[in-house]
Design goal:
This is Acetoacetate--CoA ligase. Its EC number is 6.2.1.16. With 678 residues, this protein is an alpha/beta fold. It is built from 23 helices and 34 strands.
Length: 678
């Protein structure tokens, strides 16, 4: 029986010497006169001397800029830090710089439920990107314009993103399974000029037309001028949209080829937005997170080479939709000259081992999925190595939620013995991990190997004191280049500060419970705030509340989500009904249907319960965090204070509910976190 902290694997000396981390340590010694014995020494220096570290990253990866930067970091404070002022760069150019290395090399391996496995060469990706970019310019798209996507995880979407960023416009994406309300909450904030849209998608063998949804989205975006339409499910062609110009994606691809030497990338300033990612909104609309070209270039190089050990021979796969930050992180492979594997569809259709077959067919070297996916494999007794040749796999990255010791051990038993299993935890806010993997360190069951390079990550108690070997709040104490420039529409940082800096002034509070042990190993225990982590994707409780507010039967509601120790998730919804309304099966189904259609399948709760009263604090905030803590096994006295409640009786039902559920599940399941908080 594997236990948390059990030793599982360590790379050979030859493996360690060939890693990107080891090469960087040698470069620092030769070029900077800095000598580090191991990763831990390097990490401590990089988190303290952030200017020197990030300047080294800029030079090591030979960042392309029109002009030299004037300063590495202006204002070492959060928010408001400015990185590499004076540099003028372009993210897409750094990916497509590798097209000239070997134009006929496959850079994108892609499979979907509507398409057979195929490969796209560097030349083909470059041609497609330049055609789209040139057409966007002809449409009047200029630097700073927002261009959005409602497309599946296919090469066309990747090329569209590269094209948009190549011309200095700002990219943002929503997955096609998102409902109209979820998309509108995002795109309405940023006033896009152009929309890339597909007619639908296929999942688990079932077609989902999105023609009506696209029409509703377009109708709600008054800023929109152009729609670029992709026939993905059928050949019906684009519908007409009142007052909007419509261009077929196929027509764009029929444009004349634009030679590499004839194309101009728009190199932009240090603070020019690259893309807008949306994180959960626990109050109000989802946060529109703006990140810079220079910040993401530097962070993605660092993450790809030092924390995933990617190189020009690597093939990177991570199961993701276009609405999750991990889709953006798939660019790590091409950024270093390697390739990426894209898949659009159900991870378990037509069989539960589909992704392992894809890995074998593409000779994937870095395989990524959520711990929930791995746990399902383990529970169903699937042993991939018995069915497929997985010798090419060198590493497996687990991300999206805490990974259990059992998941780690299963990968070594069922996939490969000589395997670097990595678990990483970070956020949409940075488009990277805060704590993650290093190939030169041992792997211990259930343990994230170390804090990532260049990141001053710590664990704080309530008073803001750093702790070791104790559970507390995950914080970042110094600026990072990939931190948000701002939230769109929040140039004064009001919402930004409220979201991350209201607990510890000047210190980023991330909203996760974490422990760092004496050797630097990290354990993330899930959310410490009211954000919902649903199968690795964070969604906001406010999205669910807005939908339920439209149901006349419901007076109020409260929703939480917990990551369970077995790698699963539990998301119950509690509804306070209007007087005279009876909770029955029909209402339960109506709630689920409304959430699925207006939001997405991930917004549908595991259970719906009618409650007599919704608990609030004296200041009018729903008490999601206390309810969540009790469901995780916290002592009631530690979970909330009755003195801080508007009506203490409102919590009595939840106390009983949590106690019954813990008794059914077994208190030992939650002992690790609950005991450490007593």
């Amino acid at each position: 029986m594997v236990k948390e902290g059990d030793f599982l694997w360590e790379g050979s000396d030859a493996f360690k010497e060939a890693t990107g981390v080891a090469a960087f340590i040698r470069w620092l010694r030769d070029e900077r006169g800095l000598d580090f014995a191991d990763y831990r020494e390097l990490q401590i220096w990089s988190a303290k001397e952030i200017e020197a570290f990030w300047a080294a990253i800029y030079d090591y990866f030979e960042v392309i800029s029109d002009t030299p930067y004037e300063s590495v970091l202006v204002k070492r404070e959060m928010p408001g830090a400015q990185w590499f002022v004076g540099a003028r760069v372009n993210y897409a150019e750094h990916i497509l710089r590798h097209e000239g290395d070997d134009p006929e090399k496959v850079v994108v391996h892609h499979l979907s439920e509507t398409r057979e496995l195929a490969g796209m060469k560097w030349r083909e990706l470059g041609d497609m990107t330049r055609k789209i970019a040139t057409r966007l310019r002809a449409m009047g798209v200029v630097p700073g314009d927002r261009v959005v996507s409602y497309m599946p995880n296919i090469p066309e979407t990747m090329a569209a993103m590269l094209a948009v960023t190549a011309v200095g416009a700002i990219w943002s994406s929503a997955a096609p399974e998102f409902g109209v309300g979820t998309v509108a909450d995002r795109f309405s904030q940023i006033a896009p000029k152009v929309l890339f849209a597909a007619d639908g998608y296929r999942f688990a063998g079932k077609d989902f037309s999105r023609r009506k949804e696209v029409a509703d989205i377009v109708d709600g975006l008054s800023s929109l001028e152009q729609v670029i339409w992709l026939d993905y499910l059928s050949d019906e062609g684009a519908p007409s949209f009142d007052g909007k110009s419509v261009t077929l994606f196929s027509d764009v691809l029929n444009d004349a080829v634009v030679a590499r030497e004839d194309f101009r990338y728009e190199r932009v300033a240090h603070d020019h937005p690259l893309w807008i990612l949306f994180s959960s909104g626990t109050t109000g609309l989802p946060k529109a997170i703006v990140q810079s070209h220079i910040g993401i270039i530097l962070e993605h190089y660092k993450s790809a080479v030092f924390h995933l050990n990617l190189n020009a021979d690597s093939r990177m796969f991570f199961y993701s939709t276009t609405g999750w930050v991990m889709w953006n992180s798939l660019m790590w492979g091409p950024l270093v000259g390697g390739s990426v594997v894209l898949y659009d569809g159900s991870p378990t259709y037509p069989g539960p081992d589909l992704l392992w077959k894809l890995a074998a067919d593409t000779k994937t070297t870095s395989f990524g999925a959520s711990p929930t996916f791995v746990e399902n494999m383990r529970k169903h007794g699937i042993v991939p190595k018995e069915r497929f040749d997985l010798d090419a796999i060198e590493s497996i990255m687990l991300a999206g939620s805490p990974a259990t010791p059992e998941s780690f051990k299963w990968l070594y038993d069922a996939v490969k013995e000589d395997l670097w299993v990595t678990s990483q935890s970070g956020g949409t806010e940075f488009c990277c991990g805060l704590v993650g993997a290093t190939p030169t360190q041992p792997v211990y069951a259930g343990e994230i190997q170390a804090p990532c390079l260049g990141i001053d990550v710590r664990v704080f108690d309530d008073a803001g004191n750093s702790m070791v070997d104790e559970v507390g709040e995950l914080v970042v104490a110094s600026p990072m280049p990939s931190m948000p420039l701002f939230f769109w529409g929040d140039s004064e940082f009001k919402k930004y500060k409220e979201a991350y800096f209201d607990t510890y002034p000047g210190i980023w509070r991330h909203g996760d419970f974490m422990k760092i042990n004496s050797r630097g190993g990290c354990f993330v225990y899930g959310r410490s705030d009211s954000t919902l982590n649903r199968f690795g994707v964070r969604i906001g409780s406010a999205e669910i509340y807005r939908t339920l507010e439209g149901m006349e039967e419901i007076e109020d509601s409260l929703i939480v989500c917990i990551e369970e120790p077995n790698g699963g998730f539990y998301m119950p919804l509690f509804v306070q009904l209007k007087e005279g309304v009876v909770f029955d099966e029909a209402l339960d189904k109506a709630i689920r249907k409304r959430l699925r259609e207006e939001r997405s399948p991930r917004h549908v709760p595991d259970e719906v319960h009618a409650v007599p009263l919704t608990p609030y604090t004296l200041t009018g905030k729903k008490m999601e965090v206390p309810v969540r803590k009790m469901l995780m096994g916290w002592p009631v006295a530690k979970a909330y204070s009755a003195d801080a409640m508007r009506d203490p009786k409102a919590m009595e039902w939840f106390v009983d509910f949590a106690a019954k559920r813990l008794a059914e599940k077994g208190e030992s399941m939650y002992g690790s976190l609950a005991n450490e908080t007593k």
